[in-house]
Design a protein that fits this description.
The protein is mainly α. It is about 80% helix and about 0% strand.
């Protein structure tokens, strides 16, 4: 299948590049702020290695995810009804960039300020991630979503590596000049914000909104009412809902890896900050490879089998990390984690897109965001609580994370991909018959 044959009618090649550029833009935020640099800086410098520091970090992230959980379905419904995904994406991106830059003003002891800016920046980052995902079914045909999704994730990991690589170069230079973390971490926050802003401009310049405003569709209620309404209507799509439950389990484990990798590497394994940054850089290379290999493979071997293989890989990763007694052994765990991270995120997004009616993309991806963020609360909070209750035993906490991937695999088994895709297509056809003027480009496939 040629590249143009993978795309829906009317979609230009440059739009796929523009869409992937958003993954390129925002990956620096998770890589530098959430995973490699600011997380460890918060625990070690801002909170001065207090016993509650890891729990405070995971609690702040969990609070931001709770905000998104409760508001994203309503935002998605509004974006679908007004065909305003792109406008909303621009607004939340600007907010994330500004609040990321504000982290540069956080110094040692300023715990509350750090937590406030993390909650704000991570909330807006998550809004953008969900809105960006909602463009995927507009761009790619169903049989090519795995590959297009994989390109987005792979391009994202390149962006994460670029941002982290530039930050690492500056950190090494700063350390050679005798600077401390308090002096060089602020610059990495400003650099991350700048790359996010500049790269996202490519997306906003080239990506089009292919959906049309649904003027005959009644407006949703408040945040809670819209969430409940979307949930009730989504229950008609059995396989989409089953995948949501599955995602709550396994994405909880993925969230542990993303939010606590640097903290675990430094506090348990003994990595230095510059070593941690190199570790995360290599992890991103492995994630890029994993997203591309499994992205292509899932369209051939099936999304369900591809995700199953990934979940078993994650389980092995947790066992290796828990048993690691040397940096060398932890390196192997990190590389395997990268491969699994790239493949699981790419596969999950593409699989969910197959089960969503084309006229409700942002709304249902808002529900998908609800599930992912619920997982992002349960996973890291569970890790933090286990570590806190066991006097800082993070090895036990990471070993317990294995159960999340096993549960995810068990919940994945009842999912029927063909049935889920058929239900979504039937709903889309009914919409095109009832409201032909509202038919989006993805319905013309």
């Amino acid at each position: 299948m040629g590249f143009n044959q993978m795309l829906n009618p009317g979609v230009k090649r440059r739009e796929v590049f523009a869409w992937a550029m958003y993954d390129f833009a925002n990956s620096g935020y998770t890589t530098v702020v959430i995973t490699a640099v600011f997380a460890a800086y918060f625990v070690g410098a801002v909170a001065n290695n207090a016993e509650w520091a890891t729990l405070a970090w995971t609690s702040a992230l969990s609070f931001s995810y709770a905000i998104v959980m409760l508001t994203m379905p309503a935002m998605g419904e509004w974006a679908d009804r007004h065909a305003a995904k792109k406008k909303l994406l621009m607004a939340v991106t600007a907010a994330c960039v500004l609040s990321t830059a504000a982290l540069a003003w956080v110094g040692p002891g300023e715990v509350l300020l750090a937590l406030v800016f993390i909650v704000i920046s991570n909330s807006f980052y998550t809004y953008g991630e969900s809105l960006s995902a909602a463009f995927l079914p507009e761009l790619a045909k169903p049989e090519a979503m795995g590959r297009i999704s994989a390109w987005g994730w792979a391009w994202g990991y390149l962006g994460g590596m670029l941002t982290l690589g530039l930050c690492l170069g500056y950190v090494l230079y700063a350390q050679a000049q005798g600077q401390t973390a308090r002096e060089f971490v602020p610059f990495t926050m400003l650099l991350t914000a700048a790359i996010y802003a500049l790269s996202a401009c490519v997306t906003f310049a080239l990506l089009k909104e292919h959906a049309q405003a649904q003027v005959t569709r009644p407006a949703g209620g408040g945040k809670w009412q819209q969430l409940v309404q979307t949930f009730r209507e989504a229950k008609n799509y059995k396989d989409f809902m089953q995948l949501l439950v599955c995602a709550v389990a396994y994405q909880g484990g993925v969230a542990v890896a993303i939010t606590l990798a640097a903290i675990y590497a430094e506090q348990v394994i003994g990595f230095q900050p510059q070593e941690t940054m190199v570790l995360i850089f290599v992890l991103n290379i492995a994630a890029l490879i994993g997203s591309l290999v499994l992205g292509y493979a899932q369209d051939r071997i099936g999304h369900k089998l591809a995700l199953s293989l990934t979940l078993w890989g994650w389980g092995i990763t947790c066992v290796l990390a828990a048993l690691s007694t040397s940096k060398e052994m932890f390196w192997w765990a990190a590389v395997l984690a990268g491969v699994c991270m790239g493949s699981s995120q790419s596969t999950g997004r593409a699989m969910a897109a197959l089960f969503i009616p084309s006229h409700r993309l942002a709304e249902f991806f808002g529900l998908w965001a609800f599930a992912i963020r619920l997982a992002s609360i349960l996973g890291p909070m569970g890790f933090g609580l286990i570590a806190w209750l066991t006097d800082g035993n993070q090895r036990l906490a990471i070993a317990a994370t294995t159960s999340l991937f096993l549960l995810g695999w068990l919940l994945l088994m009842p999912v029927n991909v063909q049935r889920g895709q058929l239900l979504a297509m039937q709903a889309s056809k009914r919409q095109s018959i009832d409201h032909p003027s509202l038919t989006s480009v993805s319905l013309k496939n």
